[in-house]
Amino acid sequence: MNKSYQVIIIGGGPAGLTAGLYCARSRLDTLLIEKGIIGGQITNAERVENYPGFPKGISGMELGQLIYEQAISYGLETVLADVTGAALVRRRNMVSTSEGDFTSESIIIATGSQYRKLGVPGEDTLVGKGVSYCATCDGPLFRDKAVAVVGGGDAAVSEALYLSKFASSVKVIHRRNQLRASKVLQERAMNEPKIEFVWDNVVTQIEGDGVLRQVSLKNTGDARISVLEVTGVFVAIGSEPNSAVWRGLLSLDEGGYIITNELMETKVPGVFAAGDVRHNSARQAISAAGDGATASISAQRFLSI
Ligand SMILES: Cc1cc2nc3c(=O)[nH]c(=O)nc-3n(C[C@H](O)[C@H](O)[C@H](O)COP(=O)(O)OP(=O)(O)OC[C@H]3O[C@@H](n4cnc5c(N)ncnc54)[C@H](O)[C@@H]3O)c2cc1C
């Protein structure tokens, strides 16, 4: 058995690192467990222009590194390990990882979520170079450009409406001939002159030489192949939270996101969730950081009772 802590934070993205900064600066004995890249998802962002404090923008990798440096400067301990299970016992929780078991009085879960990918050639290599999963993050970079959105639910139609404020045209590519999005959103999108629908088509390939140039489409009915010239493609086919460990232990919504109140408290006293893994998160680096700060303050309150 490894050392015991006052707080264990799981996940080293903006939410977990900010929680770590607050806990360590308040002199709580805190361990942050991260299985991949310190900095989390934001390290994939070429340029972050909506995180306050950086008027000229900052690369996602640098932002993650800076938050990390700030947190460890106050004594935050970190370990590279995959959390695989937990036993929640009041003030003596056990967290099982690939590097052994750790115990703690409280836990902050900040494991984020993952955008669902199309899984087609070119997608991974052109992320940040035209391929995006977040219109709020990247939409303003496509002013007066032709873009496409893939998907047919609320998220896709909302992204298309948001993008229509910047882009010259927005093609919504959907594999069926009708949308799943709510009627209100559908009506708004149908009445927006910049938005056009490409029905019954799936993306088969994303192409470009360093930057996105075009996407290849295949008709789901007659298998006809066509090409769409765009400089941006926004994939909006859903996302999945990294919350499998908590199934059966905490309340999750129908999508698997952890349910908390506004203090980031889960239904189990002393266990908190913050950032993108949380139900109704705004899925932004700054909101994740804010959740992390709130979770840490709630954990401190729990520990002082
Ligand atoms: C390409 C891209 C561009 C983006 N651009 C922007 C932008 O411009 N502005 C903006 O505000 N947001 C942007 N975002 C969104 C932003 O990155 C997320 O909202 C933010 O990172 C969420 O922070 P988080 O800490 O909640 O989760 P994450 O950043 O996802 O961090 C969660 C961490 O938990 C770790 N983890 C998961 N499971 C386990 C486990 N079992 N054990 C141990 N560790 C685990 C993961 O490895 C990960 O590092 C972008 C996202 C992407 C993918």
Largest sheet: 7 strands, mixed
Structural class designation = alpha/beta
Q: How many E-type strands?
A: 17
Instruction: Write down the secondary-structure element order.
Output: EHEHEEEEEEHEHEHEEEEEEEH
Provide a descriptive summary of the structure in words.
The protein is of the alpha/beta class and 305 residues long. Helices cover 22% and strands 28% of the residues. The protein has helices spanning 14-25, 60-72, 135-138, 154-163, 183-190, 285-304, and strands at 4-10, 30-34, 77-80, 83-87, 93-97, 100-109, 113-115, 131-132, 146-150, 169-173, 195-198, 201-208, 212-219, 225-229, 232-235, 239-241, 271-273. Strands 1, 2, 3, 4, 5, 6 and 17 form a 7-stranded mixed β-sheet that branches. A hairpin with a 2-residue loop joins strand 5 (93-97) and strand 6. The longest helix has 20 residues, at 285-304. The chain starts with a strand and ends with a helix. Bound molecules: flavin-adenine dinucleotide. Residues 10-16, 33-37, 40-42, 44-45, 48, 50-51, 82-83, 110-112, 127-128, 133-134, 137, 242, 275-276, 283-286, 288 line the site of flavin-adenine dinucleotide. Flavin-adenine dinucleotide is lined by residues 10-16, 33-37, 40-42, 44-45, 48, 50-51, 82-83, 110-112, 127-128, 133-134, 137, 242, 275-276, 283-286, 288.
